[in-house]
Every structure is written in C-alpha cells, then in structure tokens.
Design a protein that fits this description.
One of its GO terms (molecular function) is enoyl-[acyl-carrier-protein] reductase (NADH) activity. By secondary structure, the protein is of the alpha/beta class. It has a single domain, classed as Rossmann fold (3-Layer(aba) Sandwich), CATH 3.40.50.720. It is built from seven helices and seven strands. Helix 1 packs across helix 7 and helix 4 runs parallel beside helix 5. The longest helix is centred in the middle third of the chain and has 25 residues. The structure holds nicotinamide-adenine-dinucleotide. Nicotinamide-adenine-dinucleotide binds next to helix 1 and strand 5.
Length: 264
C-alpha cells in the first residue's frame, strides 16, 4: 500500500502551518505517492505554506480565499491549465469570529452566522462545483467536521450549526455527483490543538476530557487523520460516499464519563 496514490493528483485547501490538519493529510498523501497542489488563504499565510509545499514536492501553490468566487475560479483555472484533470480535493477550512466561540449560542449575531456558514459550509459546495468539471475520471472530495455537529459541545456554538449543515451538504453532494464517480465524504476528527482550535474557548479542557474518556485514552494527531484520509481519497475507499467517518479514538461512542477518568 506504500504507493496507494501514485498517479493521483489532488488539491489540498487549508494548510496554515505545520500543525494544520490539512498538513497531516498532505504528508500522508505525499507518502502514498500523490502529486499535490496547495492553496493558502492570503499573503500572510504564504511564507509558511511555501516551504511546506517544497517539503512534499508540490509545485502548484496558489492563493485562494473561499469567500471570493474570483479567487476560487482563478485557482481552478490554474489547475485546469497545469493538470487538465483532478483526482481529489481536501477541504479543511472553517472560520468564525472568536468572540462567538465562547458564551452562549443563542447570542450569535446575524453577521457572524452568515460568515461562519459561508466559509465553513457553503465553500465546500463552491469547491465541488469547480472540482466536478476537472474530475473527468471520477474523484474524491473530503472535508473535515467535528462532533459538535451532532451533540452540543461547550463554546462550539455557531460552528456546531455550520458543521451540521456541512455534514448534510456532504450527503447531498454525494447524491448529486455519484453518477460521475465522484465521492464526497467527511472525517469527523477528534480535537487537535491547531490555529483554528485555539479560537475555541476552554479548548484545553476539551482536549483533556477526550484524552480521559475516549476508548483509546488519547487524542488524535494530524498524522492519524492523514492516514484515514488516504483511505477515503484513494481507490481503497472506492465504494464509500456520503459518509461521516469518525477519527476520534472512539470518543463518539461513549455515553458517560469513564470510571477511571481523573477530575479536571
Ligand atoms: P487550521 O487553522 O490549521 O486550518 C484552518 C484553515 O482554514 C486555515 O488554513 C485557514 O487559512 C483556512 N481558512 C479560513 N478562512 C478561509 C477563507 N476565507 N478562505 C480560505 N481558507 C480559509 O485549523 P484546523 O484545525 O487544521 O482546521 C481544519 C479543518 O478541520 C476545519 O474545518 C476545522 O473545523 C476542522 N476540524 C478541526 C478540529 C480540531 O480540533 N482542530 C477537529 C475537527 C474538525
């Protein structure tokens, strides 16, 4: 299985730094032999992302802000020019105003609700619209979600609502694109300390809680998510679509605090 993704070309969106989940997925895909293109959100991210791209031999490194349709069009136009065809896309993008990832969900503002849903949910559909045209030989689209879509998690608030809509989008997109051999799935990752996660109130408590209560008694790494992503992105996942796959050390099956969990 070493070269499971040899001959496959994929776009990874959402690398901010070497702690990003998108980076764990990028490394695992590169190890499996895939050729990669990366997008970064804006100039501020470029100087971090370029050296990472070099590490995995990715020659295509492009800016792309998903709230700007012209910037999305430009990134996919470059892919069409350079590659002509695309096998997979990783969508590892989310945003909400930090001040609303704290306190109560009921206090969410209309403006931040719209922005959160646009960046964290609609963008997957915007990406799928453009990827579809290049996936002439079938393909695999993968996004990242969190348990806060299914159950109320403290401080996750409007992001939980956005992730619930994202998970529903995965199913609708899978139904639309299946006829073309394009699969659409999500990984529901356990908590990982990343830039985005640092915006969530009391994140350290969530990490500890997961470590003490998940069946595997640890939290996941970006490498763990990367290996599971290779399964969904490669032909080994060829009959899997519309799925939300938990990569969370089993946390989602637990109904109660573990008896051996220390107080935190
Ligand atoms: P991260 O900060 O490394 O990545 C988030 C990325 O989103 C960044 O690269 C950022 O540039 C990008 N982004 C934000 N707004 C954008 C925009 N307008 N246009 C383009 N890109 C934009 O953090 P991460 O934790 O690796 O997040 C990746 C995904 O994983 C997110 O969807 C997140 O919700 C999800 N996730 C994270 C965790 C966790 O605990 N860290 C758990 C489950 C799911």
């Amino acid at each position: 299985g070493q070269q499971l993704m040899a001959g496959k070309r994929g776009l990874v969106m959402g690398v901010a730094n070497n702690r990003s989940i998108a980076w764990g997925i990028t490394k695992a895909c590169a190890d499996a032999g895939a050729e990669l293109a990366l997008t970064y959100q804006g100039e501020a991210m470029e100087k971090r992302v370029r050296p990472l791209a070099e590490e995995v031999g990715a020659k295509l490194v492009m800016p792309c802000d998903v709230t700007d349709s012209a910037s999305l069009d430009a990134a996919f136009a470059t892919l069409r020019e350079q590659w002509g065809q695309l096998d997979f896309v990783v969508h590892a993008i989310a945003f909400s105003d930090k001040s609303e990832l704290d306190g109560r969900y009921v206090d969410t503002s209309e403006e931040n609700f719209k922005q959160t849903l646009l960046v964290s949910c609609y963008s997957l559909t915007a990406v799928a619209q453009r990827a579809e045209k290049l996936m002439t030989d079938g393909g695999s689209i993968l996004t990242l979600t969190y348990y806060g879509a299914e159950k109320v998690m403290p401080h996750y608030n409007v992001m939980g609502v956005a992730k619930a809509a994202l998970e529903a989008s995965v199913k609708y997109l899978a139904a639309d694109l299946g006829k073309e051999g394009i699969r659409v799935n999500a990984i529901s990752a356990g908590p990982i300390k990343t830039l985005a996660a640092s915006g969530i109130g009391d994140f350290r408590y969530i990490l500890k809680w997961n470590e003490y209560n998940a069946p595997l008694r640890r939290t996941v790494t970006i490498e763990d998510v990367g290996y599971s992503a290779v399964y969904l992105l490669s032909d080994w996942g060829r009959s899997v679509t519309g799925e939300v796959h938990h990569v969370d050390c089993g946390y989602h099956v637990v109904g109660m605090k573990a008896e051996d969990a220390p107080d935190i």
